[in-house]
Amino acid sequence: MQGNKGSRGVLVALAATGGALGAAAMMSAATAPTARADDFTEIIANVETIEGYGQAAFSAADVEFASNNVPLGLAGLFDGTYDDTVGVQDEISIGTLAALGGGMPPAPTSLDFNSVPFPTSYADAVTDAQSDYATAATAFTAAVTDLSGGDYGGFVLESATVPVYAFDLPVEQLFIGAVEALGL
Predict the structure, then answer these.
(1) b or e along 5-43 (b: 16 or more beta carbons within 10 Å of the residue's beta carbon)?
(2) 104 shares a domain with 63
(3) Which of 56, 80, 111 is a domain's end point?
(4) So what's the pLDDT on residue 63?
(5) 88 and 27 housed in the same domain
(6) CA spacing 20 to 30 A to 94: which of 66, 105, 106, 172?
(7) Contact of 50 with 87, CB cutoff 8 Å
(8) Alpha helices, DSSP H only, in 36-121?
(9) Contacts of 176 (CB under 8 A, 6+ apart)
(10) Structural domain tally of the chain?
(11) Do 76 and 14 reside in the same domain of the chain?
(12) CA atoms of 169 and 57, how far apart (whole Å)
């Protein structure tokens, strides 16, 4: 009889330990934010949309180059390249962070020269580049403010625009302005 009593004590202790571990696991799962599969489906749809924007921009660039309109062709080429590289990367990183934080990924956006000032001369390009640098500085300040205030989502959204306005757009606009000045 002594052998059975010891075995029952071990089984009761194992069951209690297992129950405690199960309860701890459920409590930690209840407080941790979860990323829903729908959010990741939304991220994939956003990436597909951005890729579609890129393909449309490349098609428009092809038409402009065929019509010997080099500045507009370059604008479309830059737009498509942005959408297919940086745009996709931003959609994945920002969308994933939003999903992990329990929010919905933001709608996809395209760098479209129809919404960004298109330089028609080199002087316009210089003015536009200076404006882009000012926008980058404002976004950087907002990103740092968000980070120091604990708004990590705002930090990610603001900081993603800094390299676009500090490096990408000014160079592209100056390049297109130089092509305009050369009369190509």
Answers:
(1) eeeeeeeeeeeeeeeeeeeeeeeeeeeeeebeeebeebb
(2) yes
(3) 111
(4) 94
(5) no
(6) 172
(7) yes
(8) 37-66, 70-82, 88-100
(9) 71, 74, 75, 78, 118, 119, 125
(10) 3
(11) no
(12) 16
| Low-confidence spans in the chain with pLDDT less than 50 | 9-18, 20-21, 23-25, 28-32, 35
If asked whether residues 92 and 150 sit together in one domain, one would say: no
Tell me, what DSSP letter sits at residue 109? Answer: -
Asked if 126 and 177 touch (Cβ cutoff 8 Å), the reply is yes
Token pair recorded at residue 123:
């002087």
What residues contact 110, with CB distance under 8 A and at least 6 apart? 50, 53, 54, 57, 79, 83, 87
pLDDT at 29: 47
Position 116 scores a pLDDT of 57
**Containing structural domain, residue 83:** 35-111
- 137 and 158 fall within a common domain: yes
Per-residue pLDDT at 2? 53
**Burial of 103 per CB tally in 10 Å (0-12, 13-18, 19+):** middle
Q: Which of 111, 136, 152 is the last residue of a domain?
A: 111
Residue 78 sits in the same domain as residue 128: no
Residue 106 makes CB contacts below 8 A (sequence gap 6+) with 94, 95, 98, 157
The token duo for 174 is: 């100056």
